[in-house]
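Dear support,

I submitted the protein below through the web form. The confirmation email said the job was done, but the results page showed an empty box. After a refresh the structure appeared. I'm attaching both so you can tell me whether what I see now is the final result or a partial one.
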Amino acid sequence: MPGDGWVSEAQYRTTRAITIDAPPEAVWPWLVQVGCLRAGFYSDDLLDNLAHPSATSVIPELQHLRIGQSVPMSPGGPSDRTAFKVASFDEHESLLWAKPDSTWSWRLTELSGGRTRLVTRVRARYDWHHPFDAALGVLLMELGDFAMMRRMLRGIKERAESLASGVSEHTDVVTASVWGPWARAWLGVLAWAFVNGGLHRAYEPALGVLPAEQLSNATLLAVVMPWAVMVERRHPLTSHEEALKVGALWGTLTVAFEFVGGRYLNGDSWRTLLDAYDLGAGHLWPLAVCGIVLAPVVARMWRLARTSHQRAQERSTS
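What the results page shows now:
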């Protein structure tokens, strides 16, 4: 593999591969544009791309490859510690990224039937002259690299195969701007929560404290679910996993606002806030939070079910 002799006494060495049902020409562009806050790493965007979704289309302005070009691994200005540099490449065949303590190489081998065998190799030396960096390297490489690299290879495979088959980037694909719209859409959840809270206080004297609280949780979800369906229709989510991540974002924002707002705006005690999570006492708020987390998942499933039903109808009438 390219770069095998670059790092002497490498303490971390790993080679992984995947077969892609697309020619090397369809795989190559996804490697060229890799990088933090570039096209991403097609892996876990929350961890390696600051929650910016990895690109789902080839980005023309990132396709100009040159020797010495930085491949940032983290945000901020690239340096020898935070970014690889393109050390060598043979278009559609091999690519080598290198920095003083590690190399990351790629080889594309064309197979019969228009397929590609994509092989990647990482070689790294832990620099204990910088203990923090070395310890972080051990943590990331020894514990995280397998899962992240596996997802990255699968991400490249999915994108290259879609590109080769001519699938439109608009068919069930998350755009790079999806996190922003979904984060802003949570403000709609927040607005309804305020309205719902006002209604709760209005009918609480007639129903009693606990029944009013339970009804309030139900009416909250009664609006959040269709709201998620509307948002997902405009900003479709690419996968069940992506929907869960967005739901986790909604849930985290909801709980954070509940505690911060309840404590510092309403003056509620921590005990009062925590009591709302006591299912044994009849409080249903934990189920409401779960509903908020699952709302994007349900919305995506609803859209896919409707699409499948419509296609079935079209086939039956054609």
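Response: this is the final, complete result; the empty box was a page-load delay. The beta strands are 12-20, 70-72, 83-90, 94-99, 102-111, 115-124.
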